[in-house]
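ok new one. same drill as before - structure tokens go in, u give me an amino acid for every spot. 203 of them this time. try not to just spam alanines like last time pls lmao
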């Protein structure tokens, strides 16, 4: 009887673990997106402090609420902020089109690898694609951030080149410039110069 009771208890525990796994897996997809504005900008500051190795100046947080709502969003899970993406439109030299710069995209460590970052990036890219005057999307990634490089490569971003000493207070200080062309036929060699690359990468 004792052995039978222990076997039944063990089976129930295993079932409980599996149920919790299923709950986590299903919950990981129940993500909602929300605007970033003046009244909740403090949540973005806290998220960034917990996510990135660099500290963003007050000027950064003053700019975010002024961005088009399609370019700055929180990711909510269970009513809590677990991620965010912020992008800014910039003029493209020698063109009547614009470029979209991904300022930040981050997800809290405990919620990574659940597809939240991909949902944020997809949302931004879809909105940018609908803007016919946006030629390309680009961003900077620290040269040793292999997971981020793989993430953007899967999303169709090309590694254009490198900028030496881009970061001031972290090591390594260099970054790669990643680019995804949307409504753009500008050659990569020209884009490297326009986006400030100091060394080339093979495309």
């Amino acid at each position: 009887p004792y052995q039978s009771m222990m076997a039944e208890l063990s089976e129930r525990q295993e079932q409980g673990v599996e149920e919790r796994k299923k709950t986590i897996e299903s919950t990981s997809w129940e993500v909602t997106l929300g605007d970033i504005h003046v009244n909740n900008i403090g949540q973005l500051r806290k998220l960034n402090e917990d996510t990135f190795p660099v500290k963003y100046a007050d000027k950064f947080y003053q700019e975010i609420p002024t961005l088009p709502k399609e370019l700055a969003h929180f990711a909510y899970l269970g009513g809590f902020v677990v991620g965010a993406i912020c992008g800014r439109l910039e003029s493209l030299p020698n063109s009547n089109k614009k470029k979209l710069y991904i300022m930040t995209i981050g997800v809290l460590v405990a919620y990574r690898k659940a597809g939240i970052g991909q949902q944020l990036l997809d949302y931004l890219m879809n909105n940018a694609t609908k803007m016919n005057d946006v030629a390309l999307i680009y961003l900077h990634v620290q040269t040793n951030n292999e997971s981020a490089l793989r993430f953007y490569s899967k999303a169709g971003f090309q590694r254009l080149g490198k900028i030496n000493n881009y970061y001031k207070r972290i090591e390594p200080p260099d970054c790669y410039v990643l680019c995804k062309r949307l409504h753009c036929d500008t050659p990569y060699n020209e884009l490297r110069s326009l986006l400030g690359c100091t060394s080339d990468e093979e495309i």
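The two ends are 69 Å apart (CA to CA). and btw Confidence is low (pLDDT under 50) at residues 16-24.
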